[in-house]
Amino acid sequence: MRNASSECAPASGTESFPAIGDYALIGDCGSAALVSKAGSVDWLCLPRFDSPSLFAAILDRERGGCFRVAPVAPFRSRRRYVGETAVLETEFRTDSGVLRLRDCMVAAPERVEVGALWPEHQLLRELQCIEGRVEVEVLCDPRFDYGRRRIRPQVRGELGIFLPDRGDVAVVGSEIPLAVSDGPIRGRSVLHAGDRRFLSLAFDQGEPAVIPPLGDHAARNLEATLDYWRGWSGHCDYEGPHREQVVRSAITLKLMTYAASGAVVAAPTTSLPERIGGVRNWDYRYCWLRDACFTLRALFELGYTEEGTAFFSWLLHTTHHSHARLRVLYDVFGGSAPREHELGGLSGYRGSLPVRVGNAARDQLQLDLYGELIASAFEYVRRGGALGRWSARLLTAVGDRVCELWDRPDRGIWEIRSADRRHTHSVAMCWLALDRLLEMDRVGHLRLSNRRRTRFQQEARRIREAVEAHGWSQRRKCFVDVFDGDQVDSSLLLLALYGFVSPGDPRMRATYERIHEELSRDGLLMRYAHGRDDGLPPGEGTFGVCSFWAAEYLARAGRVDEAESRFEKLCGYGNDLGLFAEEVDPRDGSARGNFPQAFTHVGLIGAALAISEARGARPEAGLAGREERRHAGRMPGAHEADDLHTGPGS
Amino acid sequence: MIDVAAALGWGLLATALLTLVMSASQGLGWSRISLPYMLGTIFSPRRDRALAIGSGLHAVIGLAVAVGYALVFEGWGEAGVVRGAVLGLFHGAFVLVVGMELLPAWHPRMASRHRGPTPTRQLEPPGFLALNYGWATPLVTLLAHVLYGAVLGACYPVGA
Question: Which of residues 23-62 of B touch A (CB under 8 A)?
Answer without folding.
Answer: 26-34, 37-38, 41, 45-47
